[in-house]
Amino acid sequence: MCSELAILYQDEYLVVVNKPAGMLVHRGERDSENRPILLQTLREQLGQRVYPVHRLDRMTSGAITLALNSETASLMVEQWRVRTVEKRYLAVVRGYMPDEVHLDYAMAPPIDKFKKNPKPKPVQEAITDFYCLGQVEIPVEIDKYPQSRYSLIEALPKTGRKHQIRRHLKHLSHPIIGDTRYGKGKHTQYFRDHMACNQMLLHAWQLSFQHPYSKQTLSLTAPLNHTWWSIVQTFGWTEVIPQALVGHR
């Protein structure tokens, strides 16, 4: 049985939870593994049906919003469509990231590798702002250099394309640690072996949106798990982590 999900906010209309890394939001057609599903887990936890509002990749952790009725779901989906929701992510990436990057780089949707002869789709606008919060160099040769460098970054996607942050960071040559699709396998393996990190280091740490009925602005913080805090402490990033997260430690 899956443990209960941490609830960040709940009222009669909607609920926001802190999704663990590795948990699917809903079961896909090709998902044959006996893995916990967020929709099913939360439905059993609350004793009522829940309606997804937006996506969060399986390996991404953090804040995700679900509606408690179909009308609220429609109102919330519209906020995502018109891009009034502010989403903030933390990530650990390879290399030294510049202080600020505004990336406007259009992308076609990822190709479904399970489909036979998939048809290419047109590119879509994709915009992300990146901010470097901290950097570290360790005296370990992992790739082709005698030292290895990493950055703690914050990402603010302005559009909502599939795998947008992950693909944008790959394009910038700063892939996310633990990203088995777009990342660097040697660095991911090092974090597994030496830092007990078995997850992708991309976390949706803050979500801000307008309540569909009260019109109040909600700003919700999803705490980091033990793996994240261990890496933050090891790399000396406790002073640069967003203060809202420190308060939820």
UniProtKB/TrEMBL annotation:
GO terms for molecular function: catalytic activity, acting on RNA; pseudouridine synthase activity; RNA binding. It comes from Litoribrevibacter albus. PANTHER family: MITOCHONDRIAL RNA PSEUDOURIDINE SYNTHASE, TRNA PSEUDOURIDINE SYNTHASE C. Residues 13-171 form the Pseudouridine synthase RsuA/RluA-like domain. This is tRNA pseudouridine synthase C. Keywords: Isomerase. InterPro entries: PsdUridine_synth_cat_dom_sf, PsdUridine_synth_RsuA/RluA, RluA_PseudoU_synthase. SUPFAM superfamilies: Pseudouridine synthase. One of its GO terms (biological process) is enzyme-directed rRNA pseudouridine synthesis.
